[in-house]
Amino acid sequence: MSHKRGISRVDIDDETITNFTVRVANRGYEFMDGAGYRDSITGRLYFGGLDGYVSFLPDKMQGNQYPPEARITHLYLNNERVLPGREVGGKVLLKKPVYLTSSLVLDYDQRNFALEFSAMHYANPAHNRYAYYLEGFDSDWVEGDGRFRRAVYNGLPPGDYVFRLKAANSNGVWHSQETSLAIRILPPWWRGPLAYIGYFLVLLLIVMGVYYVFLVKWRLKHQIELERFEIDKLKEMQSLRSRFFTSISHELRTPLTLILDPVERMINTEITPEDKGRYLSLIQKNAQRLLRLLNQLLAFKRIESGHESFNWQPAALQKLLYAIYASFEVKAATRGIDYRFESELPQLLVWADVDKMEKVFYNLLGNAFKYTPQGGRISMEVSEVAGRKREPDGPVYVQIIVRDSGEGIAPEIQNQIFELFYKANELADQNSNGVGLAYIRELVLLHKGEISVESQVGKGACFKVVLPLTVVNDQSITADLPASFLTSVDDGDPSASLEAGVDVEISTILLVEDDHDIRNYMAETLQPFYQVLQASNGQMGFERALKNHPDLVITDVVMPELSGLELCEKLRNDMRTCFIPVIMLTSLSDSEAHVEGVESGADVYLTKPFQSTLLLAQIRRLLASRDQIRERLIAIAEKGSSEPSPASVEEAPVDEFLSRVRQHVEEGVFDVQELAECLHLSRTQLYRKVKATSGQSVSELVTGIRMKFATDLLRSGENNVNEVADRLGYSEPGNFSRAFQKYYGQTPRSFMQNR
User: Fold this and answer.
1) Which of 389, 427, 429, 573 could form a disulfide with 423 if both were Cys (CB 3.0 to 4.6 A apart)?
2) Please, is 607 exposed, middle or buried when counting C-beta atoms within 10 Å of its C-beta (0-12, 13-18, 19+)?
3) Helix (H) or strand (E) segment spanning residue 34
4) Selection from 2, 461, 436 nearest residue 248 by Cα
5) Running DSSP on this structure, what letter comes out for residue 174?
6) What is the 3-state secondary structure (H, E, C) of 673-723?
7) What residues does 450 pair with on adjacent strands?
8) What does pTM read for this prediction?
9) What angle do helix axes 354-371 and 317-326 make, rounded to 10 degrees?
10) What is the pLDDT of residue 684?
11) Where does the Histidine kinase domain lie (predicted)?
């Protein structure tokens, strides 16, 4: 069939259409639609067109069986043609024609390009077909006819590509070979290998810089923390040293007091030979006490400096330990302590430094006795350490346990109590110098041993010492303890020398001091002049003050259970004892300690060592001041000063008492029991205090206040006798008149007429 564009053959069986184009003078021949004829005899076909007709035998027609070869003809960059041998962007891209080029390298800014191609077949070239495919970018082949012979690509990312091209003739016969061109688009400079190396180096420099900054900051922070720690440690050491020297001062001043005062008394007064011997014994004992303390400090320093030497000698271990234990038996019996020695160790002869062994366990037992109350329990237990097999020539591991039922040590400070200057608790701060346990630990470590503590607050402490001791195998060697092995143990027990029921004409002084020697010495000093009660700690002192109502209290500052400062505060805050004068004795000589003593309510603050004459003078002054207060109370009762101003702390309870009495009198009622309860006193204590302070009975003092109040009412002229009697709580006016006349020598009516 014919049409304007040519002739088409339709195969009904194959359902295919083949188009034929007729060209005349290099131009297409246009046929008329449907203008066709077939010669039935020859089989020739005739088709008519505008310029004539065309005829041919269909059996002689053969399709185009020669596929064209595809070839890339031109390269365009940014819409500009690239010629071979010409520089583009500073370099030659094509050294030869593009169809002879197998590979192409483009810069990043040349990634917008086009490839023009053609088919090497000139039979009906306009109807040739093309297909191209860019490997690495296109997802499928792109087909086109002869009118579009250019492949355009824009903005390709850097990478390697392969441009593949193939062609077909007008009859659709494709060439079996493809034309290809390898294309590499270089990355930009900022994405090249050198750039990435540069990036890595920059990043590395940044990381190193950040690390260096953080390292410098960390070092600076660490240095600051280290310096702050050193400063805090220095402050702590200074504080501990200050506390240590304060405690050492206390340890030195107490024996110095017991040395200097007896010496002064022996020089200034005549004494009997018996007293002289007792004083000299006291001086010797306290001089030895000073020597022991100094020796302990020097020994500790020798250990620290590594100059301590051992005096190894054979020693019967169980006999040695039992001798240390036995030196405390008298002290245990005196204080009613359940004291035991338990040993599961056979008799062994070992090499030991006897002096250092004595120091270790003497100190441990001394601490146990110091913190165990009367009636408590202390034991010394000796055994071989379980689980450590003894070699034939090796050491025997001995465990010695000192157990007590004292106050105990808090778990959080058990690792610190072996440090120099450290005090385990307030009690330890008051009674130890901070050297003992540190010294013990160093001695144990010198023996290559171990020391530990197990304790709970309120349940006592258990000190365990493990020592590796070498057994003496030579049976000919024997051992005896030296005569000077053990230091004497004070076996004194604080107890009251006098109880209630003493002669009321002699003033009673309560002496509160934890040191046995100085307490006994002061008692001996005071007993020729006063009745003396004794207490060994602040709590016992407060209980005795409540029970016996002494005229004056003398107390040390540093004591167990209740310090002197706390005792003084309790005495001042209790209405039953607030009027009692207090003399405070201390080893602390600084002004801050004096201020604390005065603030706690002490009347006199004496520093050890003190002269007994000065103490006696202060006692006499305070007792005389008490007598003046008594006279003032009587004067207030008689004159009826309405606004008394206490001159001292002792006068405050006087005014409290008078204020309570006036309140009851003005209310018209008076009950001695109620008054006593208001003052936190029993009825008996109230009578005793009033009698001791004013020299009058309660009824006499109250009557005086009543009569003074009555005269004030009568002078005002606003009340008659009956009204005054009623206000004063008298049931009958006659009873008031008789009491008034007995007190003033005239009747109330006469007083009103003569006023």
Assistant:
1) 429
2) middle
3) strand 31-38
4) 436
5) B
6) HHHHHHCCCCHHHHHHHHHHHHCCCHHHHHHHHHHHHHHHHHHHCCCCHHH
7) 466
8) 0.39
9) 40
10) 61
11) 247-471
**Environment class of residue 719 by beta-carbon count within 10 Å: exposed (0-12), middle (13-18) or buried (19+)?**
middle
pLDDT for residue 419: 72
Residue 679 has a pLDDT of: 67
Tell me if 380 sits within 8 A of 365, measured CB to CB: yes
Q: Which domains does the chain have, with CATH numbers?
A: 2-60 (no CATH), 70-191 (2.60.40.10), 194-292 (1.10.287), 309-469 (3.30.565.10), 508-622 (3.40.50.2300), 626-754 (1.10.10.60)
66, 121 Cβ separation under 8 angstroms: yes
- Give 538's contacts (C-beta < 8 A, 6+ positions apart): 512, 555, 559, 560, 561, 562, 563, 564, 566, 567
Closest listed residue to residue 44, CA positions, set 34, 59, 32: 59
Q: In angstroms, rounded to a whole number, what is the distance separating the alpha carbons of residues 178 and 389?
A: 94
Task: Give alpha helix (H) positions in 590-680.
Answer: 591-599, 612-639, 651-666, 672-678
Residue 548: φ, ψ to 5°: -105, -10
Residue (of 617, 323, 626, 319) closest to 478 by Cα position? 319
For residue 652, what pLDDT is reported?
A: 47
**Amino acid at the residue 237:** M
Q: Output the CA–CA distances (angstroms, integers) from residue 361 to 177, 297, 492, in the order listed.
A: 109, 17, 21
Residue 430 Rama label (left phi>0; alpha psi -120 to 50; beta): alpha
Distance in angstroms (rounded) separating the CA atoms of residues 690 and 232 = 56
Q: Which two tokens stand for residue 377?
A: 């329990």
What stretches in the chain show pLDDT beneath 70?
A: 21-29, 61-65, 121-123, 240, 243-244, 246-248, 250-251, 296, 300, 303-309, 387-394, 420-436, 473-505, 587-595, 597-598, 627-698, 755
Cα gap 274→255, rounded to integer Å: 21
pLDDT value, residue 82? 92
The span from the CA of 556 to the CA of 587, in Å, is 9
Count of C-beta atoms within a 10 Å radius of residue 100: 11
The DSSP annotation for 468-504 comes to EE-B---TT------TT-SPP--------S--S---T
| Contact assessment for residue 552 and residue 510, using Cβ atoms and an 8 Å cutoff | yes
Task: For residue 745, give the amino acid letter.
Answer: G
pLDDT for the residue 484: 42
The whole-angstrom separation of Cα 513 and Cα 523 is 10
